[in-house]
Design a protein that fits this description.
The complex is a heterodimer of chains A (about 425) and B (about 325).
Chain A: H1 25-58, H2 73-77, E1 90-92, E2 96-97, H3 104-115, E3 117-120, E4 128-131, H4 153-164, E5 167-169, E6 180-186, H5 193-210, E7 213-218, H6 223-228, H7 236-247, E8 253-257, E9 261-263, H8 270-275, H9 277-280, E10 310-315, E11 318-327, H10 330-339, H11 342-346, H12 354-364, H13 366-370, E12 372-376, H14 377-380, E13 382-383, E14 404-406, H15 416-430
Parallel strand pairs in A: 1-5, 2-7, 6-7, 6-8, 10-12, 13-14
Antiparallel strand pairs in A: 3-4, 8-11, 9-14, 10-11
Helix pairs in contact in A: 3-4
Chain B: H1 5-8, H2 11-14, H3 22-25, H4 27-35, H5 42-49, E1 59-65, H6 77-97, E2 100-105, H7 121-132, E3 138-143, E4 146-148, H8 155-160, H9 163-166, E5 195-200, E6 203-212, H10 215-223, H11 227-233, H12 241-251, H13 253-257, E7 259-262, H14 264-267, E8 294-296, H15 307-326
Parallel strand pairs in B: 1-2, 1-3, 5-7
Antiparallel strand pairs in B: 3-6, 4-8, 5-6
Helix pairs in contact in B: 6-15
Classes of the chains: A alpha/beta (about 425), B alpha/beta (about 325).
InterPro entries (chain B): Glyco_trans_34, Nucleotide-diphossugar_trans
Family (chain B): Belongs to the glycosyltransferase 34 family.
GO molecular function (chain B): glycosyltransferase activity
């Protein structure tokens, strides 16, 4: 009778120690069976894996995983070269790019007719349409070949005028790109050489004192583009600014300062004075109507100085595009190119003033508004006023020791030269 | 004042206890555990208590459902059926690759009291979806009448890896709109691709496109609809934001810089019937042998085409293709 007491032979050692006794014959058969089953299993698995690998490698079941068969590999490799308005550019190694101001009277003598090619407007036979022609012969530095080799100053100034837009700053050697570039458009038809010289000299002196770059263009260079949609010459400042961003690709900030403004303080460093978040933070006008005094759309209450890409001043009568700062990144570029889009320039109520387009953009595009800061005029564009009795806490009009004076509107009474002279003398006296 | 402690106990330095082996030091703990083996289960509990670590999905598929629905007429049962299978198709695809599927209603809405802005909601929906999934990077817009034919393809492998090298960075290769290829101020060399587009016979096609969350995208979505542009162009822009994007591409270099073009058949094959004027050009039409990724039955509700028929055709075709693929690893298949 079986009592459930284990036999000795049942108590086999466990673990690593192999049984010393031979395995009973009845077990052995089963184990062999198991072994051969395993072998068969392994064989099948190996076969399938191999087959899978072979089919993946040699038969094109992997073809559906890419679209290389649809693309032209050669076309993928060719990338368009980055260039400005002109395809052939002149590399310059100087921080200061400005036209020869002494050409102003010569250019005026040449008139637009000899600076551009022209045709009669199809809509209005009274009007001449100027256009660019890129047919000049260039030498290996992309300068215009001087065929006549003439010493005629008129030819020289014409050549310089046509070459000036091709100049781009590309640092070579140990030279570094400036972080801030001052941009100005000058008009040789509006002002005399002496006046223009003072303006450009002012920018260069200031830039030199602070290690900035200067980018000055003739407004007349953009006449054909302005004519497209009968835009006011004011619009040229945006084209010049865009060209400056191309000419100084490494710069971080671009400060457009109109020819009607004059930098009074050369000891003020723009970044720490204004652009640094801790300097900008307290002067941003928050919850401020974009169209004063009671526009519905206002600037954000909680704009952070870190987010700002665009800094502009506002006086009592609205935004002022005579002095503004744009950051050189995708927001800055995108915003500027959107601002100058043909559909903006074409819109009848914007054609006369770039400012109207700007006010529209800030009111309709929250992302752009959130990256923009409106600041009081006296920060970077104190307004000139002929009557001197001003309140002390005024934030618009020029007072002693202000950074920049903006005498916009002087052209109405033709007093620009006089006003500039008075400030120029004031500055000379301070030295 | 204080004499070093060791000086008072001269034996301390000489008579040290035998060094314990490191394991032996664990012995009390081991003994403790041996008597309470249930404690070993405690760490298991942590698995349930601590929320699982999820890698948040990088891709959101936006499916525009209910296109043009809402106001003009009732939907037919066939349209319901097409919508259902379209959703199921994307849902299956999203689940397989760990993407998010977000179905967006594009029924006609009255935005402004003075005018209809129907068909202009793509930018709004993209903005809203980007807010909804703040961790996702890529957003793949799909119109309702699209069908993913090869759901095993992952977008990462197919497109996102090495994206800049896989896409055309200008229009020189295929330019049905004759947009000037060269533009000043465009710097493709130093720009990533933030928008993946395909062109059909008539230009840009927004039936299937991918957009990456970026500063560029934020600005694009902000400027895409502008009242001044709209006022001047809404009579000419028949395809709304598609035409507008073409215009922006044409005139604004910053937009050009970051658009990458892929062949239509890479993300948006057409069935025969679309692009009727160029019906012999193989670059637009679905090719079964090449196993095109996706078919877009755009315009199937116009003319003598039928969405439901086309949809059923491609659904069955996909089933067949999948069946054949199921045995592809066996010898002889």
């Amino acid at each position: 009778m079986h009592l459930g007491i284990p036999k000795r032979s049942d108590l086999r050692p466990k673990g690593k120690n192999k049984p010393i006794l031979p395995i009973p014959a009845s077990f052995r058969g089963r184990i062999n069976d198991f072994k051969s089953k395993k072998t068969i299993l392994y064989a099948v698995l190996t076969l399938l894996t191999l087959n899978y690998i072979v089919s993946r490698a040699f038969f094109s079941s992997g073809k559906g995983h890419n679209f290389n068969h649809l693309t032209n590999q050669e076309a993928l490799q060719t990338l368009q070269k980055n260039h400005g308005l002109y395809k052939h550019e002149i590399i310059v190694n100087s921080n200061y790019i400005f036209p020869p101001i002494e050409h102003a009277p010569l250019l005026r003598e040449l008139t637009l007719d000899r600076l551009f090619k022209s045709k009669v407007s199809p809509d209005n036979p009274q009007e001449k349409l100027y256009y660019y022609s890129d047919d000049d012969d260039l030498n290996e530095l992309n300068e215009i070949k001087d065929k006549s080799n003439s010493e005629n100053p008129l030819d020289q100034s014409r050549k310089a005028f046509k070459e000036h837009g091709r100049k781009v700053f590309r640092p070579s050697g140990s030279k570094k790109s400036p972080e801030i570039v001052i941009v100005t458009g000058v008009d040789f038809e509006q002002f005399e050489q002496g006046h223009l010289t003072k303006i450009v000299q002012n920018r260069v002196d200031y830039a030199h004192a602070n290690g900035y770059g200067v980018y000055v263009r003739w407004i007349q260079e953009f006449i054909p583009t302005l004519q497209e949609f009968h835009n006011d010459r004011k619009w040229a400042r945006l084209f010049i600014l865009r060209a400056a961003m191309h000419a100084f690709p490494q710069a971080k900030y671009f400060w457009y300062l109109d020819q009607n403004a004059y930098i009074m303080r050369h000891d003020i460093e723009l970044y720490s004075y204004l652009l640094e978040p801790k300097s900008l933070e307290p002067i941003i006008l928050r919850d401020q109507p974009i169209v004063p005094p009671n526009g519905v759309i206002k600037t954000y209450k909680k704009t952070k100085a870190d987010d700002i890409r665009f800094v502009i001043t506002q006086a009592k009568d609205g935004l002022d595009t005579d002095s503004f700062i744009l950051k050189n990144d995708i927001y800055g570029k995108g915003f500027l190119e959107f601002w100058t889009d043909p559909l903006m320039r074409k819109y009848p109520s914007f054609a006369g003033d770039d400012k109207d387009a700007l006010m529209h953009i800030l009111q309709w595009h929250p992302v752009i508004l959130s990256k923009s800061a409106i600041i009081p005029s006296r920060t970077i564009a104190s307004l000139h006023s002929s009557n001197t009795a001003e309140e002390v806490d005024d934030t618009s009009f020029y007072q002693e020791d202000d950074f920049v004076v903006n005498f916009k509107g002087c052209d109405v009474y033709h007093t620009c030269e006089l006003v500039l002279d008075s400030y120029w003398k004031k500055q000379q006296a301070a030295k | 004042m204080s004499i070093p402690y060791a000086a008072h106990q001269p034996y301390l330095k000489t008579l040290k206890p035998a060094a314990q082996s490191r394991l032996a030091r664990l012995e009390p703990a081991a003994r403790y555990l041996r008597h309470r083996p249930y404690l070993l289960l405690l760490p298991l509990l942590l698995f349930f208590l601590v929320p699982h670590y999820h890698k948040s999905p990088r891709v959101v598929i936006i499916l525009a459902a209910n296109e043009g629905g809402g106001v003009q007429r009732w939907k037919t049962p066939q349209e319901w059926s097409v919508e259902r299978s379209s959703i199921a198709n994307k849902r299956e695809y999203a689940e397989q690759h760990g993407y998010i599927l977000s179905i967006k209603d594009t029924a006609l809405k009255r935005r402004y009291s003075h005018e209809w802005r129907e068909g202009w909601e793509k930018a709004d929906i993209l903005k809203q979806t980007m807010r909804q999934y703040p961790d996702a990077e890529w957003f793949w817009w799909l119109d309702l009448h699209t069908f993913i034919m090869e759901p095993q393809i992952s977008l990462e492998e197919y497109l996102f890896n090495n994206l800049e090298k896989r896409t055309y960075r200008d229009l020189s290769y295929h330019n049905p709109l004759h947009i000037p290829v060269d533009s000043p101020y465009v710097d493709v060399e130093h720009s990533p691709v933030d928008l993946v587009l395909a062109q059909d016979c008539g230009g840009f096609n927004l039936g299937s496109f991918l957009v990456r969350r970026s500063e560029w995208t934020e600005l694009l979505l902000d400027v895409w609809w502008d009242p001044v542009f709209y006022e001047q162009m809404h009579m000419t822009w028949e395809h709304k934001e598609q035409d507008c994007l073409e215009t922006l591409y044409r005139t604004q270099p910053w937009i050009r810089e970051r658009v990458g073009f892929v062949p239509l058949r890479a993300i948006n094959s057409f069935p025969p019937g679309a692009c009727a004027e160029q019906k012999d050009d193989p670059q637009y039409f679905y090719n079964e042998k090449d196993r095109d990724f996706l078919v877009n039955m755009a315009g199937c509700n116009f003319g003598d085409r039928s969405c439901w028929n086309e949809y059923e055709h491609y659904r069955n075709l996909q089933k067949q293709l999948r069946k054949s693929r199921r045995w592809s690893w066996l010898p002889g298949f």
